[in-house]
Structures are given as C-alpha cells and as structure tokens.
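Dear colleagues,

I hope this message finds you well. In preparation for our joint manuscript, I am sending the DUF445 domain-containing protein (Streptomyces flavalbus) sequence together with its predicted structure, so that both groups work from identical material. I would be grateful if you could confirm receipt.
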Amino acid sequence: MTTGTGPGSGPGGATGARGVARDAGVPGSAVRAMNTFSAADEEKRRGVRRMKLTATGLLLLVALVYALAEWASHAGAGPWAGYVAAAAEAGMVGALADWFAVTALFRHPLGIPIPHTAIIPNKKDQLGVSLGEFVGENFLSEDVVRQRLRAVGIASRLGAWLAEPEHADRVTAELATALRGALTVLRDTDVQAVVGEAVTRRADAREIAPGLGKMLDKVVADGGHKRVVDLVVSRAHDWLVLHSEDVMMAVEGGAPGWTPRFVDKRIGERVYKELLRFVTEMRDMPSHPARGALDRFLTDFASDLQSDTDTRARVERLKSDVLARGEVQDLIASAWTAVRAMIVSAAEDERSELRLRVRASLLSLGARMAAEPSVQGKVDRWVEGAAVHVVTTYRREITSLITDTVASWDAGHTTKKIEAHIGRDLQFIRINGTVVGSLAGLLIYTVARALGA
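The corresponding structure tokens are as follows:
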C-alpha cells in the first residue's frame, strides 16, 4: 500500500498552503500545528501501523485457510472442507473490499489513480467548506445559541460568583488595571481637543440666557443674593477706610484746573465722607433703599433674561466671545488633565472611594443576580441577545475561519494526521469485514448446499 499524492503534497504544496494561509489571514501557528507531528501523533501512527499489520495478518490467515481447505477438498477430506473453503473465500473478499474502501479515503490503492479514491487529500477544501456550513447551520443558529445559553444559566452562576468578596475584589482590581491602561494609552492632546470641542459645541447649541434668568429669579426670591451684597458692601467699606487718601486724591485730580486747591480738597473730603456714609448705612441697614433698588434691578434683569429678545441676544454674544477666548479653551482642555489624574489616583488606591463603591456595587449586583429571578431573566436575555447578534451578524466570518484554516493545511500532512487519529478504528472495519464476510460466505454456502440437496 503505497502513499499516493494529492493536492499540496507535491513540490510547492506546502508553499501553496502557506500562501493560502497568508491570504486568508489564518494564523501561522494554526498551519504549523497541522503540518507537524507531535509525540502523541507519532504514538497514534504507531498504533495505526500495528492495527494494519493485524488486519493484514488476518487476511493472510484466511487466505492460508482457503488454500488448505481447497487442498483438503481435492484430497477427499470430506464435505467439511467445502464449508471452510467457502467461509475463507468470502472472508478474503470482505477483507480486500474493506481494505480498498479504507485505503481509498487517504490515497490511491496500490498507487493506481482510480476515480473517487484519495478522497481526503483531493477533497480537503470541499470538506472544509462542508464542515464550515455544518457548523454554521447546526451550532451557530439562533435557536441553538439561545437554548444553550438558557440551559447554562449565566446570570445565576455569574451572580453567585460575584457575590463572593474575593471575586468582587479581583474584578475590581482588573477593572482598575484596565482603566489605568486605557487612560495611559489615550493621548492628552487628543482627549483635550475632544473635550474642548464637545463643551464648546454643546454651549453653542444651547441658549443660556433663559436658564440664567430662572436661576437668578430663584436666587432673588429666596434672598440668596443678600449674602453676596453683604460681602461686597463690607469689603467696600473696609477698602474705603484703608484708602481714604487715594479716594480724595482721585476726586481732587478730576477737578478743573482753575479751581483753588483748598476747594478741591474740601470737595474731595466731602465726597469721601458721603461715599463712606452711604456704604456704611448700606452695610448696617438691611432695609436700605439701595438694597431694595438692587433687588428690583436683579428681578427685572432676571425677567429680561427670560423674555427680552435684546437681552438674550447680548448674553449669547457674550457667551460666544467668552468661549472663543484662548484662556477659556485652555481652561476647558486642562480640566481633562485634572480629571485623569484624579481617576488614576483613585484607581491605584485600593481604599479609594471609587474602588470601594465599585466593589460594593459588584457585590450588590452579584447578590441580586443570584437571588432575584427578575434580574436573572434580564441579564440572561441581554446575554442571549448579544450572543445571537454576534452569531447572526458574523456567522460567515466564523465559518470562514474553519474553511480558510482547512484550506491552509498541506494536503499530505493533513491526510497523515487524520489517518493517525482515526486510522486505528478504520482498521477494525477491515477486521470486521473479514469476519463478517467469512460468516456470510459460510451461511450462503450452507443454504446453497441445503437447497441443492
């Protein structure tokens, strides 16, 4: 039984296979694994050779029995020799037929290119396509995926796993590592540009005047602005006390040049005293008329922000001018740096509020998934939907992995490896064919003799 040739087994076959592997995107490791023989493969090949010797030995045995039975029959040994010869003859026929069938799977019997032989090397690619279609139709269908995932009970198992504190700690640590890695990979300049653009675009797309008006109206109605007024008036009073000379000199400096200096000084002192008195009264009198006027101004301004077209337009122009300033854009962009540093620090600290909250959330989620059927049902449906979407969307890509991988294998090596794995069982077909053929031949001979008698 000589080894036949098939596609890819001759010169350039392996090279062609490697080319297919590269073109199809099949990992080189998959090609090497199929085109090499491990120690386990060699052991299986030795087992196949032993079984071949056994089956061939049985064929030679029945051939010897047939020859002896025929010699005994011609020598007048009696009717029993005919029965033995018939059984041995049928056994040889069965053994030879099954040898041909088994050999035809892997090579041309006796090296003769008989049609429909050497099936595996000649039909390797078609077998890969058929295998891919079989897997796609029977394993990657929506019903099969849903039934299998439903039987597994992913939600309850995952919930029970997450409910264990050590598992929650492990997931939290892995999430922290992934978060740090993601933040490390991201370039600050890219993120800052995205953040700045997003903030600016969102601010431009939304009018802020009505919102500011509502907020200001609410603040004035609640009296929240009074503390600001108190602070401003108090600081103004303190400043006037400390800078009295500056104020009076400023008033004197603005007087006409033709007025006497003592008049300018008296006017400056008078203006300063009145200004200080006004600020002091406004500071000490909650019911000061100026405070009431300020309240009315803020109320009217809040109303204009919400309803006056001109006021709203001015606020929008002011907003655009402010956002367009480089300092504001730099401030928006620099916010990412601060946020990233804060997140990285929290992710690295095992006792940070971020990690503690994530851990608590995982424990709570695990307990709910393990105990509440409604939560289990939601999670299971989500997992099933995601799996079905992946399977139905990428079924062709998944099955093409099988097809392309099989196509990348060298035909000769593939045939030898398949024979090493299943050849031992196929040799039992030859043995069974010999035994069954002998019994069938004996039965047929017996029936024929009975009917002839």
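For the figure legend, we might mention the following. The chain is about 85% helix and 0% strand. Confidence is low (pLDDT under 50) at residues 1-24.

With kind regards,
E.M.
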